[in-house]
């Protein structure tokens, strides 16, 4: 079985490779360029992390 080379697509964060597999399925690889992406978390992600760590776990009732 021979698979043709992937399609190369430029994206705002780097690039994407898309292979068309036998049967019509796709395999997609997202490639990130460190020059194009932020290296820190967004404030919204920091807030979610704080909320998740400060809540108490839910226990089941018997």
Automatic annotation (TrEMBL):
Is Transmembrane among the key words of this record?
A: yes
Cross-referenced InterPro entries: Chitin_synth
**What membrane topology is given?**
Multi-pass membrane protein
Subcellular location as annotated = Membrane
Its keywords, alphabetically, are: Membrane, Transmembrane
GO annotation (BP), single: chitin biosynthetic process
A cellular component term, taken from the record's GO annotations: membrane
- Molecular function terms from GO: chitin synthase activity
Query: Main site of residence?
Result: membrane
Q: What is this protein called?
A: Uncharacterized protein
Organism annotation: Dreissena polymorpha
